[in-house]
Automatic annotation (TrEMBL):
Upper classification of the organism: Bacteria, Pseudomonadati, Pseudomonadota, Betaproteobacteria, Burkholderiales
Record-given protein name: tRNA-dihydrouridine(20/20a) synthase
Keyword terms: Flavoprotein, FMN, NADP, Nucleotide-binding, Oxidoreductase, RNA-binding, tRNA processing, tRNA-binding
Site entry (Interacts with tRNA), positions: N95, K181, R184, R298, R301
Organism of derivation: Caenimonas aquaedulcis
InterPro entries, A to Z: Aldolase_TIM, DUS-like_FMN-bd, DUS_fam, DusA, tRNA_hU_synthase_CS
Family as reported in the entry's similarity comment: Belongs to the Dus family. DusA subfamily.
Gene from which the chain derives: dusA
The protein's Enzyme Commission number: 1.3.1.91
Annotated positions binding FMN: P15, M16, M17, Q68, K137, H169, N209, G210, G211, G231, R232
Active site residues of this protein: C98 (proton donor)
Summary of the function given for this chain in its UniProt record: Catalyzes the synthesis of 5,6-dihydrouridine (D), a modified base found in the D-loop of most tRNAs, via the reduction of the C5-C6 double bond in target uridines. Specifically modifies U20 and U20a in tRNAs.
Amino acid sequence: MNPKHDTRWRMSVAPMMDWTDRHCRYFHRLLTRRTLLYTEMVTTGALLHGNVPRHLDFDPAEHPVALQLGGSEPADLAASAKLGREWDYDEINLNCGCPSERVQRGSFGACLMAEPQLVADCVKAMRDAVSLPVTVKHRIGIDQGESYGFVRDFVGTVANAGCDVFLVHARNAWLKGLSPKENREVPPLRYEFVHRLKREFPHLTFAVNGGIKDDAQVREQLQAVDGVMVGREAYHHPWWLASWDSAYYGEADSGLTREAVEEQMVAYMEREAALRGTAYSSIARHMMGLYNGVAGARRWRQVWSDHSLKDRPAREVSRLARVSLAQPAEIV
């Protein structure tokens, strides 16, 4: 892989627990062909001792899609990476950024940054097991330390094991005293640390994550690093993704409309209901932001979220929601 010419990490949607499930990723893929999508974190224990299809099954339309793993045992991660290859994922990513206490109790996530050699051993084991790209998502530090040297040494050690792609949340992870939500907001953003990593390791690929909410910020970051990973902004304002292929990959404008995306999602809901008995509500919850900024958006969301309609066919609910768009409503 030549990072200078590899654009697969230029834009990506971050792995988000309870959000970026297979239904969410299918929805996002309707909006952008090129953006790399990440799964929720899946622990090695869930794969090696649980229901593998439930955790790994996905629609082929989701490609390119990366499997994010949580774990700290090299052998378990290697076995899980092999499962990811068997299920046709395009990349295996190791979570070294989640600060939750539950994850820490499993000795993985952000606390792994304190053990760079162990992370290197995990990366090597996965690289030996599969030919897929093995990447690492991490923070710039842990707790309240502000040393650039800490993250520099972490990257250098892991890179020596063969990892050449790093997805960096440009905040520290405070392992005590902050909730996961607060860990996304309280520790200050230090994009300059990620920019410095790119300057010091120009042969490696770096994508920056954290607090990026608009095209101006994306373009600014792409002047300094190889890619941008967007999290909650992509989830809450998904229509932004519809412009990414033309803005960041040089493709022609697709002419996509919100109405066409909603129609494709309804067809997907119908297929999922027929194949798996999936309730449309578990799919529709991911597309609540589709009409953000359009008159009637609030009422449209209310229709799709109306519990009294849960036994109606998804197509009928969509029809009622679309009718609501024509009614006077504030733009929200």
